[in-house]
């Protein structure tokens, strides 16, 4: 057995090139199929706005593709691992490499190195491209795919409490005294929590204190009467600072801005476990690609003519998909405080790293 972790330079380049081409093929296939299905589901809503057409459909695709790439890149690495290793095994190339003195880890080393590079690229892609496209797509869908207000701080689907009363807005733009809400609903409640008055307005501006509703429509529940005053000020307890902490979309913020949001919410005494888990997952999530060659490695070994190659491939695929299921479950547990944030983000990765190593060592080393 050779003492070096990597095989020869020629063999390393050969395996890495095979792996990369198959990852690209799998990713393109998955993204194209899923994008077509997603566009079929959303095209009706996009085209329901009269001014939208083919250009807006292509704009939607340009915003959606980065999300699909980020989500399904680890799946592509898993499938590419199984296809690559199963093909090498079927062509007896794995037997040749092991006969030359390479261990199972040395056979996998070029794939692991490639996956590590892909994980680093995925992290940069998520933080620079996916977060921006997610924020823009959320703002666009919040206005029913109509014109997006020209503002760098668009927030959508806000729900705010003012004592017993509730205030919601479809979008919010601007900052500080220049904040503007659209699609506003204000529900005034009694001590039993029943709605006694509901006010709706297309637009509201910050009045310091409160929010000035423009041309509101007010419905008095007890009197069952509708009134249309010229303006109305509501929600005096809803301040700009409270709005900034009302809704933080972790998927639309990079790791640095999300850390600042977490600090601000912690200072204000707000619960931050969900956001902390999302922050840690911004690091552990891209590393899923690094884990896939180890989980799919069972497809590389064993005799191809023994009839167990299909079973080994299915086992590798099952391990990979089990990781994704447990990863999502752990995040869900972390969101409501069942797990500490760091455990929720890292436990599945560490667990399946140990499982993959155990399977590889017990069966091949």
UniProtKB/TrEMBL annotation:
Q: Which InterPro entries match?
A: LptG, LptG/LptF_permease
Topology relative to the membrane: Multi-pass membrane protein
Per the record, its GO cellular-component terms are:
ATP-binding cassette (ABC) transporter complex
One matching Pfam family, short form? LptF_LptG
Q: Which domain of life is it from?
A: Bacteria
Where it mainly occurs, coarsely classed, is membrane
| Coiled-coil segments on the chain, per record | none
* Protein name, as recorded: LPS export ABC transporter permease LptG
Organism expressing this protein natively: Novosphingobium aureum
Q: Write the lineage as a comma-separated list.
A: Bacteria, Pseudomonadati, Pseudomonadota, Alphaproteobacteria, Sphingomonadales
Gene designation per UniProt: lptG
């Amino acid at each position: 057995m050779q003492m070096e972790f990597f095989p020869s330079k020629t063999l390393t380049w050969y395996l890495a090139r095979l792996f990369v081409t198959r990852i690209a093929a799998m990713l393109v296939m998955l993204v194209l199929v899923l994008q077509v299905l997603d566009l079929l589901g959303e095209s009706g809503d996009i085209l329901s706005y009269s001014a939208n057409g083919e250009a807006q459909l292509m704009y939607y695709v340009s915003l959606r593709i980065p999300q699909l790439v980020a989500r399904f890149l680890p799946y592509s690495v898993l499938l590419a691992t199984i296809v690559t290793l199963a093909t090498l095994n079927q062509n007896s190339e794995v037997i040749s490499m092991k006969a030359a003195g390479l261990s199972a880890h040395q056979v996998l080393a070029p794939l692991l190195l490639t996956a590590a590079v892909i994980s680093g690229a995925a992290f940069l892609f998520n933080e620079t491209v996916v977060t921006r496209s997610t924020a823009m797509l959320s703002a666009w869908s919040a206005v029913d795919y109509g014109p997006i207000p020209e503002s760098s701080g668009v927030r959508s689907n806000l729900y705010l409490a003012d004592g017993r009363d509730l205030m919601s807005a479809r979008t919010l733009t601007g900052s500080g005294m220049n904040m503007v809400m659209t699609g506003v609903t204000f529900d005034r409640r009694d001590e039993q929590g029943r709605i006694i008055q509901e006010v709706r307005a297309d637009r509201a501006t910050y009045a310091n204190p409160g929010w000035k509703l423009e041309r509101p429509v007010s419905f008095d529940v007890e009197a069952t009467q509708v009134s249309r005053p010229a303006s109305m000020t509501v929600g005096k307890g809803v301040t700009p600072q409270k709005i900034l902490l009302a809704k933080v979309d972790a998927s639309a913020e990079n790791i640095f801005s999300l850390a600042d949001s977490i600090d601000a919410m912690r200072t204000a005494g707000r619960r931050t476990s969900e956001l902390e888990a999302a922050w840690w997952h911004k690091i552990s999530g891209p590393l899923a690609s690094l884990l896939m060659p180890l989980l799919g490695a069972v497809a590389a070994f064993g005799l191809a003519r023994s009839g167990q190659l299909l079973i080994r491939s299915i086992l590798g695929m099952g391990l990979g998909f089990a990781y994704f299921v447990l990863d999502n479950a752990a995040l869900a547990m972390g969101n409501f405080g069942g797990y500490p944030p760091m455990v929720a983000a890292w436990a599945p990765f560490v667990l399946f790293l140990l499982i993959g190593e155990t399977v590889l060592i017990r069966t091949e080393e």
